[in-house]
Write a structure and sequence with these properties.
mainly beta, Immunoglobulin-like, 4-stranded antiparallel sheet
């Protein structure tokens, strides 16, 4: 997560502290620290954090903390659902299951006739469990490729899973 701030008079470096759920603030892990911002790393997906910034002078004296600001991470930070597999294949149906991505509130399945895409809505999708679906209305004796993406509470998608293939029967 990228944070920015105005440079403080006399500050030669900065410290970023974080808190979740109104808890105690602790030092954040940051990269690309400058006088006007930093990237905070190591955050959990779909989690609300509060951040404070301290300026430090050349002798290490810290300023009072900035006013705390809050932000919520998403699930789209390069992670994707794992373990996508075809669990059954029928004449016009294919069933899929996968492992949920932490922080996801829902998932979206896409399909293609080609492993490289383009991927789009697969047809009629029926949930058969929290991380399993049956896709119907498919053509018999046809190869399909499927991917799944996790969505957070704002609808932000994760990276897509690796595609898996399924073949409807005759």
């Amino acid at each position: 997560m990228t944070l920015t701030w105005a440079a403080g008079a006399g500050a030669t470096t900065y410290q970023v502290w974080q808190s979740t759920g109104g808890g105690v603030f602790t030092p954040s892990t940051v990269t690309n620290l400058t006088s006007t911002g930093a990237i905070v790393t190591g955050l959990n997906p779909s989690t609300t954090y509060a951040f404070e910034v301290f300026g430090a002078d050349a002798t290490g004296n810290l300023s009072a903390p900035s006013t705390a600001v809050s932000a919520t991470t998403t699930v789209s930070s390069g992670l994707s659902p794992t373990g996508l597999q075809v669990t059954s294949q029928g004449q016009t149906t294919i069933a899929l299951s996968w492992q949920a991505l932490v922080g996801a509130t829902s998932d979206a399945v896409t399909a293609s006739a080609n492993a490289a895409g383009p991927f789009g809505p697969p047809g009629a999708v029926t949930l058969s469990g929290p991380t399993s679906v049956v896709i119907s209305g498919l053509l018999p004796n046809t190869q399909y490729y499927f991917r799944v993406q996790a969505l957070d509470f704002l609808g932000n998608p994760s990276a897509p899973s690796a595609p898996v293939s399924g073949h409807t029967t005759m």
